[in-house]
Amino acid sequence: MNLDLNQLVKWRREFHRFPEIGWSEFWTTSRIADYLEDLGCFEIFLGKQIINPDFVRGRKQAVVDKGLANAKAYGANEKWLEKMEGYTGCVALFDSGKPGKTIALRFDIDCVNVTETRSSEHIPNKEGFASINDGFMHACGHDSHITIGLGVALWIAQNKDKLTGKVKIVFQPAEEDTGGAERLMKAGVFKKYNVDEVYGLHIHPDFPEGYIGCKAGYLMAQNGEIDVEIIGKSGHGAIPQNTIDGIIIGANFVNSVQSIVSRNLNPMEGAVLTFGKMTAGSVRNIIAENVKLEGTMRCFNPDIYDTMKRRLLEFAKGFEIAYNCKVNVTIDDGYLAVNNDENLFDEFVEAIGKEKITKTEPLMISEDFSYYQKEVPGLFFMQGARNEEKGFVNGLHSLKFDFNEDIMLDAIKTYVKVLKFKGSVE
């Protein structure tokens, strides 16, 4: 493989230095398009060509405007900014002109709301490529994902005469919070070119460097965000008989709904119901009237998810009767479960070598890659990033997250092996 690790490192550090959150990745998208254009063998799609604005959610205009202004200030290519029409992300299509499969490879490009550590021991600080956007960081490794995608594109350019069929490289915005994948699917990004199958990855410090975590079937969970508003009756803490205590109701609600997982679901089915935030009260001697709870629910089986939703709403009605209060429950359906195609998994193991695969138990984290799998057969895998000897042990979304940059070359080699196995390379 004629790929220069130094080039990959240069790309990764450039993107790490300028992280952008979902729907504001204007500079990132423009740089990706610059590099793809330089390769000279890709058709580049941007903006409303790949995003259906009618189905976009969670896109805040103030964030978009600030991202666009920052991109212009840092010299983003105006040509690409105009073509984006306010919507980030980029799709590159390589067409060999020969018959064959159309294979899609997906790479997410947004960052997370994390302030990067200022520790002098942190390599990005030592080497001068730490985030310059205060409060934002590529703490989930998407800078590496972008680089891996560009590395695959570079390999394709170097070997374009040997390829067959089509390869579609998707640089997707807004994975972290608002599901950019679904917006691309609503725009028909796969249907327009009859994509046959899709592959995606995440570098992950829970898996050792040099190995890949993957399994057939459910790999990552479906999730939903729960907001509960309890309306009671306020009053003096010394006269509780004239009040309806929202805190008592809220505490009992959190405890009671735990029986949904323990008593309403098959114990062989994985599920989690967690409330991580309660907001209530004003002072110590006033009984709280309004209580707000924020939680998350996760599982793999969509029928289990529906049961959890139904039971939460039933508990709310029961609590209204029992406590003479009002309980409003809102459930925002998040990402679907990542469900790896069994045939693709078997082929993946054969292509990569079973000695490189670490089969993993299903993970309760979520990923919007699932929306691609809803359209076509797909496979998602974890590229091992844990290296205790070199100190790369911090978890995803940690302010100290970092990784051995060599793993990016390993990931590119993995994708090349897949393309060769699938007959996309003569």
Summarize the main sheet: 8 strands, mixed
The class by helix and strand makeup works out as: alpha/beta
Helix content: 25-40%
Q: What is the chain-wise order of helices and strands?
A: HHEHHEEHHEHEEEEEHHEEEHEEHEHEH
Number of strands: 16
Biggest sheet strand order reads 1-2-4-3-5-16-6-15
Say what oligomer this is.
single chain
Number of helices: 13
Provide the residue-averaged pLDDT.
97
**What proportion of the residues form beta strands (DSSP E)?**
15-25%
- The poorly predicted ranges are none
What best-fitting shape do the alpha-carbon axes yield?
globular
Radius of gyration: 24 Å
End-to-end distance = 15 Å
Describe it.
The structure is a single chain. With 426 residues, the chain is of the alpha/beta class. The chain is 35% helix and 23% strand. The chain has helices spanning 5-17, 26-39, 61-73, 78-84, 123-127, 142-158, 180-186, 246-256, 258-263, 302-323, 342-352, 370-375, 406-421, and strands spanning 43-46, 90-95, 102-108, 166-172, 197-208, 212-214, 217-220, 222-231, 235-236, 271-280, 286-287, 290-299, 326-333, 338-340, 357-359, 378-386. The longest helix is centred in the C-terminal third of the chain and has 22 residues, at 302-323. The model has no long low-confidence stretch (mean pLDDT 97).
